[in-house]
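REVIEWER CHECKLIST
Item 1: Sequence provided? yes
Item 2: Single chain? yes
Item 3: Sequence as submitted:
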Amino acid sequence: MTSYTADYAGRIWLDKDTFLAPFGHFDADYKFVINFLRDERVSKQTYHDGMDEAQLLQQYAEYMKNGFSWIGFHDGKRAGFFVLQVISMKPIIFAIHGGIDPNLRRTKMAQKACGFIKHFAFDQKMATKIEGYIAAPNRLIVRFFDKCGMKKECEVKDRISIDGSLYPLQIYSITHDEYKVTNTKKTKKSKKKKKRGSVPIL
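Item 4: Structure as written out by the authors:
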Protein backbone atom coordinates (compact mmCIF):
# COMPACT_ATOMS: atom_id res chain seq x y z
CA MET A 1 0.00 0.00 0.00
CA THR A 2 1.21 3.50 -0.85
CA SER A 3 2.47 5.61 2.06
CA TYR A 4 0.96 9.09 2.09
CA THR A 5 3.26 10.77 4.59
CA ALA A 6 3.75 14.51 4.12
CA ASP A 7 7.32 15.81 3.80
CA TYR A 8 8.79 18.86 5.62
CA ALA A 9 6.85 21.20 3.28
CA GLY A 10 3.54 19.37 3.63
CA ARG A 11 3.80 17.75 0.18
CA ILE A 12 2.32 14.32 -0.48
CA TRP A 13 4.49 12.64 -3.12
CA LEU A 14 2.51 10.36 -5.44
CA ASP A 15 5.59 9.43 -7.48
CA LYS A 16 8.98 11.00 -8.18
CA ASP A 17 7.43 13.58 -10.55
CA THR A 18 4.05 14.24 -8.93
CA PHE A 19 2.92 15.61 -5.59
CA LEU A 20 -0.03 17.27 -3.87
CA ALA A 21 0.38 20.31 -1.62
CA PRO A 22 -2.09 22.17 0.63
CA PHE A 23 -3.99 24.66 -1.56
CA GLY A 24 -3.85 28.41 -1.10
CA HIS A 25 -0.34 29.19 0.12
CA PHE A 26 0.49 30.98 -3.14
CA ASP A 27 -1.41 33.34 -5.47
CA ALA A 28 -0.35 31.04 -8.31
CA ASP A 29 -2.66 28.35 -6.87
CA TYR A 30 -5.70 30.55 -7.46
CA LYS A 31 -4.45 31.70 -10.87
CA PHE A 32 -4.06 28.08 -11.91
CA VAL A 33 -7.72 27.35 -11.09
CA ILE A 34 -8.95 30.41 -13.00
CA ASN A 35 -6.86 29.57 -16.06
CA PHE A 36 -7.92 25.93 -15.83
CA LEU A 37 -11.60 26.87 -15.90
CA ARG A 38 -11.01 29.24 -18.82
CA ASP A 39 -9.47 26.48 -20.95
CA GLU A 40 -11.99 25.93 -23.75
CA ARG A 41 -11.76 22.14 -23.38
CA VAL A 42 -12.88 22.54 -19.77
CA SER A 43 -15.29 25.50 -19.97
CA LYS A 44 -17.43 24.07 -22.77
CA GLN A 45 -18.13 21.01 -20.61
CA THR A 46 -18.55 22.88 -17.33
CA TYR A 47 -20.79 25.91 -17.66
CA HIS A 48 -24.55 25.91 -18.17
CA ASP A 49 -27.48 28.31 -17.79
CA GLY A 50 -27.07 30.07 -14.46
CA MET A 51 -23.50 28.87 -13.94
CA ASP A 52 -20.64 31.02 -15.20
CA GLU A 53 -17.01 31.49 -14.14
CA ALA A 54 -17.75 33.99 -11.36
CA GLN A 55 -20.41 31.79 -9.78
CA LEU A 56 -18.30 28.66 -9.99
CA LEU A 57 -15.30 30.39 -8.40
CA GLN A 58 -17.55 31.62 -5.59
CA GLN A 59 -18.73 28.04 -5.04
CA TYR A 60 -15.16 26.73 -4.97
CA ALA A 61 -14.28 29.38 -2.37
CA GLU A 62 -17.10 28.06 -0.15
CA TYR A 63 -16.06 24.43 -0.72
CA MET A 64 -12.48 25.23 0.32
CA LYS A 65 -13.56 27.26 3.34
CA ASN A 66 -15.60 24.35 4.66
CA GLY A 67 -13.51 21.43 3.42
CA PHE A 68 -10.05 20.27 2.38
CA SER A 69 -8.14 21.20 -0.77
CA TRP A 70 -4.86 20.47 -2.56
CA ILE A 71 -2.95 21.76 -5.57
CA GLY A 72 -1.33 19.10 -7.74
CA PHE A 73 2.13 19.39 -9.34
CA HIS A 74 3.63 17.34 -12.17
CA ASP A 75 7.19 17.85 -13.43
CA GLY A 76 7.49 20.95 -11.24
CA LYS A 77 4.38 22.69 -12.64
CA ARG A 78 0.86 23.10 -11.31
CA ALA A 79 -1.23 20.47 -13.02
CA GLY A 80 -4.46 20.01 -11.06
CA PHE A 81 -6.51 20.87 -7.99
CA PHE A 82 -8.75 18.82 -5.73
CA VAL A 83 -11.36 19.80 -3.16
CA LEU A 84 -13.27 17.67 -0.68
CA GLN A 85 -16.41 19.58 0.28
CA VAL A 86 -18.08 18.57 3.54
CA ILE A 87 -21.66 17.55 2.70
CA SER A 88 -22.58 15.95 6.01
CA MET A 89 -20.90 15.52 9.39
CA LYS A 90 -23.01 12.59 10.61
CA PRO A 91 -22.50 10.43 8.64
CA ILE A 92 -19.35 12.05 7.22
CA ILE A 93 -19.88 12.56 3.50
CA PHE A 94 -17.64 14.49 1.13
CA ALA A 95 -18.22 15.76 -2.40
CA ILE A 96 -15.17 15.81 -4.65
CA HIS A 97 -14.45 18.73 -6.99
CA GLY A 98 -11.51 19.80 -9.11
CA GLY A 99 -9.69 18.77 -12.24
CA ILE A 100 -6.42 17.91 -13.96
CA ASP A 101 -4.74 19.61 -16.91
CA PRO A 102 -6.33 17.94 -19.99
CA ASN A 103 -2.84 17.60 -21.49
CA LEU A 104 -2.01 15.12 -18.71
CA ARG A 105 -5.04 12.87 -19.12
CA ARG A 106 -2.83 10.02 -20.40
CA THR A 107 -0.65 10.10 -17.30
CA LYS A 108 -1.64 8.31 -14.09
CA MET A 109 -1.87 11.54 -12.11
CA ALA A 110 -5.66 11.36 -11.75
CA GLN A 111 -5.59 7.77 -10.53
CA LYS A 112 -2.76 8.43 -8.07
CA ALA A 113 -4.36 11.63 -6.75
CA CYS A 114 -7.64 9.76 -6.25
CA GLY A 115 -5.76 7.10 -4.32
CA PHE A 116 -4.61 9.72 -1.81
CA ILE A 117 -8.01 11.45 -1.66
CA LYS A 118 -9.78 8.18 -0.87
CA HIS A 119 -7.13 7.35 1.74
CA PHE A 120 -7.58 10.80 3.31
CA ALA A 121 -11.39 10.59 3.31
CA PHE A 122 -11.88 6.97 4.35
CA ASP A 123 -8.76 6.06 6.38
CA GLN A 124 -8.00 9.40 8.05
CA LYS A 125 -11.41 11.09 8.32
CA MET A 126 -13.45 7.87 8.50
CA ALA A 127 -15.93 9.12 5.91
CA THR A 128 -18.91 7.02 4.94
CA LYS A 129 -19.02 8.15 1.32
CA ILE A 130 -17.54 10.37 -1.40
CA GLU A 131 -19.94 11.80 -3.97
CA GLY A 132 -19.36 13.54 -7.29
CA TYR A 133 -21.80 15.49 -9.45
CA ILE A 134 -22.12 15.97 -13.19
CA ALA A 135 -24.30 18.90 -14.19
CA ALA A 136 -23.52 19.31 -17.89
CA PRO A 137 -22.51 16.30 -20.02
CA ASN A 138 -18.81 16.05 -19.25
CA ARG A 139 -16.59 13.21 -20.50
CA LEU A 140 -13.57 14.58 -18.61
CA ILE A 141 -15.31 14.27 -15.24
CA VAL A 142 -16.75 10.84 -16.06
CA ARG A 143 -13.21 9.58 -16.77
CA PHE A 144 -11.93 11.22 -13.57
CA PHE A 145 -14.68 9.60 -11.47
CA ASP A 146 -13.96 6.26 -13.12
CA LYS A 147 -10.27 6.51 -12.15
CA CYS A 148 -11.45 7.20 -8.58
CA GLY A 149 -13.47 3.99 -8.59
CA MET A 150 -16.73 5.96 -8.44
CA LYS A 151 -19.83 4.54 -10.11
CA LYS A 152 -23.00 6.24 -11.29
CA GLU A 153 -25.52 6.04 -8.46
CA CYS A 154 -28.54 7.89 -9.84
CA GLU A 155 -29.93 10.79 -11.87
CA VAL A 156 -32.10 13.61 -10.55
CA LYS A 157 -34.46 14.63 -13.33
CA ASP A 158 -34.74 18.14 -14.80
CA ARG A 159 -32.18 19.76 -12.51
CA ILE A 160 -29.90 21.51 -15.03
CA SER A 161 -30.76 23.95 -17.80
CA ILE A 162 -28.44 23.98 -20.85
CA ASP A 163 -29.36 26.37 -23.65
CA GLY A 164 -32.92 26.33 -22.40
CA SER A 165 -33.30 22.53 -22.29
CA LEU A 166 -33.54 20.54 -19.06
CA TYR A 167 -31.04 17.79 -18.20
CA PRO A 168 -30.64 15.48 -15.20
CA LEU A 169 -28.03 15.94 -12.49
CA GLN A 170 -25.93 12.78 -12.35
CA ILE A 171 -24.55 11.57 -9.04
CA TYR A 172 -21.50 9.29 -8.82
CA SER A 173 -20.18 7.82 -5.59
CA ILE A 174 -17.95 5.39 -3.74
CA THR A 175 -18.70 4.20 -0.21
CA HIS A 176 -16.33 3.31 2.62
CA ASP A 177 -17.25 -0.39 2.26
CA GLU A 178 -16.62 -0.33 -1.51
CA TYR A 179 -13.25 1.33 -0.93
CA LYS A 180 -12.26 -1.31 1.64
CA VAL A 181 -13.25 -4.20 -0.67
CA THR A 182 -11.24 -2.70 -3.56
CA ASN A 183 -8.21 -2.09 -1.32
CA THR A 184 -8.34 -5.64 0.04
CA LYS A 185 -8.36 -7.07 -3.49
CA LYS A 186 -5.40 -4.87 -4.48
CA THR A 187 -3.44 -5.94 -1.41
CA LYS A 188 -4.06 -9.63 -2.11
CA LYS A 189 -3.09 -9.20 -5.77
CA SER A 190 0.09 -7.35 -4.77
CA LYS A 191 1.04 -10.12 -2.31
CA LYS A 192 0.50 -12.78 -5.01
CA LYS A 193 2.76 -10.92 -7.44
CA LYS A 194 5.50 -10.62 -4.80
CA LYS A 195 5.15 -14.31 -4.00
CA ARG A 196 5.45 -15.33 -7.66
CA GLY A 197 8.49 -13.11 -8.15
CA SER A 198 10.27 -14.12 -4.98
CA VAL A 199 13.56 -16.02 -5.13
CA PRO A 200 13.51 -19.35 -3.23
CA ILE A 201 15.96 -19.59 -0.34
CA LEU A 202 18.16 -22.69 -0.67
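Item 5: Key structural point noted by reviewer: The longest helix spans residues 176-197.
Item 6: Recommendation: ____
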